[in-house]
């Protein structure tokens, strides 16, 4: 296993850095973590539990007594990547335990890799530990093997993902997450806040709140205070002295109540909403089993921006969904032009085993999906370029992610790590360090990135 570069995306098989040299004879486990940030948090929890039991963490295949591969199984392409990672771990180490979303299909995995030691499903922490114990018995030294107060993290020290719930109650036809991870199960608010406090005390400057449906947080709990507990949680997180960034916010009407918190400069809740709209044509949305209210969504976007003019809106979309006509796709392009979203991702639709959308008529040819994806991204790139150009000359707050001999790589409040753009400083950066929050005057803008200098 190679070291995990700071800039490597979580969905490109990040590997943990060596946490310490370890002691002679200490059992050591390697970890390959694939998929989304939610899976990365699962990997951190597994490694934290193993460290508490006296295991060392190896960043090299050859130094590990066994390797855990935390898989992704959301799309067929992700399944193929997971199978490749399992095969690499078997070839390099030979003793492999599989967990994660693809672990919900043990027969499928064993058909490709019969030599694996064990398979467990998503967020089955106890079963993973049992598999590790069976393969590599623990041998802790209570005088040496001490767990750091903040646990094990696979992200840089200055930011951390904060998972607030598991599962999802939606029935989107293209998605198999509820089948793999179950219905919504929210963590108690006190547990979330306690974890957030510990992270901030350990030096974290940015909390990235994640779940399958952040807006629905707490609505499954009978002991909840208020109809929409995410409002109170976001308000409390915003008082901790760190940036707080909300991901995967489903566009319920009450989201408008979050926006005033984002507009308050004294609150740490960043003016940033990551909302998966998926499409804009009502017929496509109905076939997806998504809310078909694109026009009202434009009204909501206008209201959010009226309340918080600096809000950044990120979203993801699917092109080539079964039955998507050229007219429906053109509606999506027109909607995108009107919505003027700041950050946009787009996926070409894939059939996924177990998804109800597989049976829909009107499957779109691959060449049409590709052509529509290119047209969509061309439109999105032009919007991004224009919106970033409007920031030239402004002084923005930014967090430093990395510093090398050539300059500092930073992010503004409008940029989430790994998925959005960067702000680069190439002069007067020598005293900066990762985690610093500075003010930068923007001198130049590109399609997705900014360049600037420290504000005097």
SSE layout and pairing:
Layout: E1 28-33, H1 37-52, E2 56-58, E3 66-71, H2 76-92, E4 96-100, H3 106-112, E5 118-119, H4 125-135, E6 159-163, E7 165-166, H5 177-181, E8 185-186, H6 189-201, E9 206-210, H7 229-237, E10 243-246, H8 259-263, E11 269-274, H9 282-288, H10 294-307, E12 312-319, H11 326-339, E13 343-348, H12 366-389, E14 395-404, E15 407-412, E16 423-425, E17 437-445, E18 450-454
Parallel strand pairs: 1-2, 1-3, 3-4, 4-5, 6-9, 9-10, 10-11, 11-12, 12-13, 16-18
Antiparallel strand pairs: 7-8, 14-15, 14-17, 15-16, 17-18
Helix pairs in contact: 11-12
Could you describe the 3D structure shown?
- The structure is a single chain.
- The chain has 456 residues and is an alpha/beta fold.
- The protein contains 12 helices and 18 strands.
- It has helices spanning 37-52, 76-92, 106-112, 125-135, 177-181, 189-201, 229-237, 259-263, 282-288, 294-307, 326-339, 366-389; strands spanning 28-33, 56-58, 66-71, 96-100, 118-119, 159-163, 165-166, 185-186, 206-210, 243-246, 269-274, 312-319, 343-348, 395-404, 407-412, 423-425, 437-445, 450-454.
- α11 (326-339) packs parallel to α12 (366-389).
- The two termini are 44 Å apart.
- Residues 1-21 have low confidence and may be disordered.
